[in-house]
Design brief:
508 residues, mainly beta, Neuraminidase, Lipocalin, five-stranded antiparallel sheet, 0% helix, elongated
């Protein structure tokens, strides 16, 4: 590859001839390609590829899977219950190293100090503290839900702290979507779902983590004591501070939602609202971090064997729901988990198991416009899973830095010795070709594809712009436009000398 610094003089301005890869417009920022050609700065579409890489497996005789991508390293932490390994029925944690489209599992480590109950697991990274994550699980002893913390540095798993119970005086059972969620605006703060069937109560508890120490200073914040609720899913609204939503299934199996406002460890709940007036097992709701008020949901209707889904908005206390529709799973599917791509608005993916008797693991992408949800084509991740019908056998998590890239984990069937499988997937994404090091200059003239033309380099004065503000600093944006906006991934270009000219003094 051509070294950019070799192109530039120590002082003064300079231009150089390059061959264009693709047509180049005059007065347009260009990047230097590895072949020494230049291309206009802009977006290119990365096609959907599900799965994008080969499956890797780990463990024997496992069930219940949780998975999360580390925002810092891009690697994965997965958790599962293993009823073959010694100690039997303990919870295990394994790091998956992600390189391009390749996922490679490391060596599993037991994180629990007691046998786990037959219940789903959850794992989540703190978005505000590098490498920090917590695991939610349920032990057989007293049916108590516990939370334990650790850290990840690259591919190195840190020591685990002590598992802390948040309801030791009761028996929080039947938490079928045993999910926890971090507050995106407060480091170390998370919420954990709580269902106590013996007391017919459901709610959440607010916890904190510092290092590997988990604490619960407050009591369980129940949103109902009037019915037997189950399958609670809890999620913070990433666009509204201190707003949290619980989605759940009440006695009678209708799906409902409720909004809460968090103050410290206390929650003030709003009014329960019916989301699905039908059997809605394993209801899962998630917010789009890039579109204020927007969310999507998915669930399994055990009476029909069909997965349902939809999109909606929450503005203040007002819920708006779009049309309930079938997830494209050949008319069947269960154990649905939806997750949004944090790098592009209105894009999400869903993982689920077919309910056709084989329980093949599938994934599909979707887009949202307003309250309209449009599903893409279903894709088979594995023909040998999942382990069994029921919640918590599949998990999916998106990269926080690479558009459209996700990792899926799932409990495989007997043909794979009931191992945990994992793959990297890619939904369609529009990705800029601009990086921190490849901006080479401004095209001094129009250059046809494969033709040779002049490019102004560092220190040159480039003409042909319009409406510049003299003396202002300008930046090249991800789409190739030149503005005064400095937000990453924009690259600093130079200072306007007039309405039409920029001195490209900041090119590196």
């Amino acid at each position: 590859m051509t070294v950019l610094s070799a192109l530039f003089p120590s002082v003064g301005g300079k231009s150089k001839d390059f061959v264009a890869s693709g047509a180049v417009t005059a007065a347009t920022p260009v990047i230097l390609n590895s072949a020494g050609t230049v291309t206009e700065v802009g977006f290119a579409t990365t096609a959907e590829s599900i799965p994008a890489g080969a499956e890797d497996v780990v463990g024997v005789l496992i069930n219940y899977v949780g998975l999360a991508v580390d925002p810092t390293s891009g690697n994965v932490v997965a958790v599962y219950k293993d009823f073959d390994a010694s100690p039997s029925d303990y919870g295990w944690c394994v790091v998956g190293v992600v390189s391009g489209t390749t996922l490679t599992w490391g060596t599993p480590t037991a994180f629990s100090s007691a046998a786990m109950a037959a219940a789903p697991l959850s794992v989540n990274f703190d978005p505000n503290t590098a490498g920090s994550f917590v695991i939610g699980y349920r032990t057989t002893a007293l049916n108590v839900i516990r939370v334990i913390a650790s850290t990840l540095s690259g591919s190195t798993l840190g020591a685990f702290g002590t598992g802390v119970a948040f309801a030791s005086s009761a028996s929080p059972a039947d938490t079928a979507n045993n999910q926890l969620s971090f507050d995106p605006n407060t480091a170390g703060k998370f919420a954990m779902a709580n269902v106590i069937t013996s007391a017919a109560t459901s709610g959440i508890v607010i916890g904190t983590v510092s290092g590997t120490t988990v604490s619960f200073a407050g009591s369980t914040q129940d949103f109902t004591t009037a019915d037997d609720y189950a399958y609670v899913n809890v999620i913070w609204n990433p666009n509204v501070a201190n707003e949290i939503v619980a989605s759940f299934v009440r006695s009678g199996w209708w799906g409902k939602v409720i909004k809460g406002t968090v103050s410290g460890t206390s929650v003030t709940w709003g009014t329960e609202t019916i989301l699905v007036s039908a059997t809605a097992n394993y209801l899962n709701l998630q917010f789009d971090p890039n579109v204020a008020n927007s969310f999507a949901w998915a669930y399994y209707n055990a009476n029909t064997g069909v997965g349902g889904s939809g999109a909606g908005t929450l503005v203040g206390a007002t819920w708006t729901f779009g049309t309930n529709q079938v997830v494209p799973s050949g008319g069947s599917g269960q154990n649905f988990m939806v997750r949004f791509d944090p790098n592009q608005a209105g894009k999400l993916a869903c993982i689920y198991a077919s309910s056709d008797g084989a329980y093949n693991v599938r994934a599909t992408s979707a887009t949202i416009s307003g309250t309209t949800l449009t599903w893409g084509t279903q894709n088979e991740l594995s023909a040998d899973g999942d382990y069994a019908a029921g919640p918590g056998m599949e998990a999916i998590s998106f990269s926080t830095t690479e558009k459209g890239k996700f990792v899926a984990g799932y409990a495989l069937g007997s043909a794979s010795s009931n191992a945990m499988g994992g793959v990297v997937g890619q939904i369609e994404a529009s990705v800029t070709n601009l990086t921190a090091t490849n901006l080479v200059g401004i095209a001094a003239e129009a250059i046809s594809d494969t033709a040779t033309g002049s490019v102004n380099l560092r220190g040159a004065i480039s003409d042909g712009f319009t409406s510049l503000v003299e003396g202002s600093e300008y930046y090249v944006q991800a789409d190739g436009t030149v503005t005064t906006t400095s937000t990453s991934p924009a690259q600093k270009l130079g200072v306007a000398l007039s309405e039409t000219q920029i001195n490209t003094e900041y090119l590196t």
